[in-house]
Amino acid sequence: DYLRQIGALEEGAPGRPHVRIVNYLLGPSNCVASSPYLSVCCLSECEALMGEVEERLRAPAAAPGRLLDLVATLSSSTVDAPRVLSQDLDARLHAIAEKNDGEVPLHGRLFAQWLHLAFPRECPFPHIVEDAAVLAADHFDPERHAFSEADRLAFANATAAEAAPSAPQWSDEEVLPLAEPPRRSMWGDVGRVVVLLSLGVAVLGGGFRSVSDAVAAGSGRQHGKKSELPLYA
User: Fold this and answer.
1) Model confidence over 93-119: pLDDT tens digits?
2) Which terminus of the chain, N or C, has less C-beta within 10 A?
3) 127-134: which pairs have CB atoms within 8 A and are 24 or more residues apart?
4) CA gap 226, 170 in Å, rounded
5) Where are the alpha helices (DSSP H) in the chain?
């Protein structure tokens, strides 16, 4: 249950679950020195790869062709570069772009899932958790989430007798925590400027009329006022 909660269990084939090693390594069970402010966990090599992508692109989204060329030049401890990416990776990245106006959002869940396929030993599968508390280090209980030696041996024997794992799981569910608001067209901006200028002219015209009326009223009172000088006998 713990592996399923943190996204470390791949259940593509019924009755034959597999452990996503990278998700397990980056899970809360491998964090120490937990506090309300920080946890000391294993380093994520995927963060370095993502940082290089961000540094080269310097944009929140990019065209799929540009991303394919860039990722093909990235290397890791288990992946040599340059390399030719598979047709499946090419097709999946273009499918992501089709859902986002021709560009791939770099900080969306689908691109993170794509990176997991491109770097399966470095980038974790972006599992959608129902409660973020399961990812906290203090949520993990070593005694409650421990396997006995007999369970480990039985699992190892069953795994050795299994056939090759099925194709990796893929979910089309997108999460965009950093989505930008829709871009306004040029004509929309021009319309806003015209409306603001019209309001400004109306306000200034009203103020000018008020000042003119006040000056005219004051001048009329001055002309209509009689001199009241004191009379002495």
Assistant:
1) 999 999 999 999 999 999 999 999 999
2) C
3) 127/6, 127/7, 127/8, 127/23, 128/171, 128/173, 128/175, 129/5, 129/6, 129/7, 134/5, 134/6, 134/28
4) 95
5) 2-5, 21-25, 45-57, 64-71, 87-98, 109-118, 149-160, 186-224
Residue 48 is encoded by which pair of tokens? 């370095």
pTM of the model: 0.65
Q: Residue 224, class by beta-carbon neighbours within 10 Å (0-12 exposed, 13-18 middle, 19+ buried)? A: exposed
Q: How far apart are CA 148 and CA 151, in angstroms?
A: 5
Residues 6+ apart with CB under 8 A from 52: 74
CB atoms within 10 A of CB 18: 17
Concatenated DSSP letters of 120-136: TTTSPP----S-GGGGS
222: which residues sit within 8 A by CB, 6+ positions away?
Answer: none
Residue 176's CB is within 10 A of a number of other CB atoms, namely 14
